[in-house]
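Hi support team,

I submitted a single chain yesterday and got back a structure, but I'm not sure I'm reading the token output correctly. Could someone confirm the output below corresponds to the sequence I sent? I've pasted both exactly as they appear in my results page.

Thanks,
R.
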Amino acid sequence: MTAITERSTAIRYRLYFWLMNVSLPSAVALFVEMLIRNFAGIQLWGLPETIGWPIYLSIYPFASFVPLFLTIAAFMRDDYAEALWKRTVVILAYGVAIFPLAFMIFAWVAALTVREGTIAYELFDVFYSALRGGASGTTILTYVWHIYFLFFVAVFQFLRWRDAR
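Hi R., thanks for writing in. Yes, this is the structure output for that exact sequence:
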């Protein structure tokens, strides 16, 4: 009885890291797809809908719902994963506090220093007009949600990689 419990506990702890390993490339792929869709206007990696949608639907759960589950699934974390989770949450808290201010400062500096007619101005104008595009609140919240979980998984995996070195 104890051996079965220990084996299922070990599998549960390993499953946490396996799901993290799958979530990182999925979250990066979804983020790249979101950037391409909004800034280049190309949907689903430029693939036909018959190919693009199955890829998108297979990536989406691992990029959004699995990281959400891993964020709150304390029963799946062993002591090491719990320590990594705590370090990750601290880094994300700093990022959430600092990023909006840094983003506004960057936008103000770019708006005041970039000269019209340059390549930098054209890039900034594309970026800024995408932000002013009048996206709905649902779209904005969805993007923030995906980006937050991308950063959660990326920071967790980076800390794990750094500890392994």
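A quick pointer for reading it: The chain has one domain: 2-164. Let us know if anything else looks off.

Best,
Support desk
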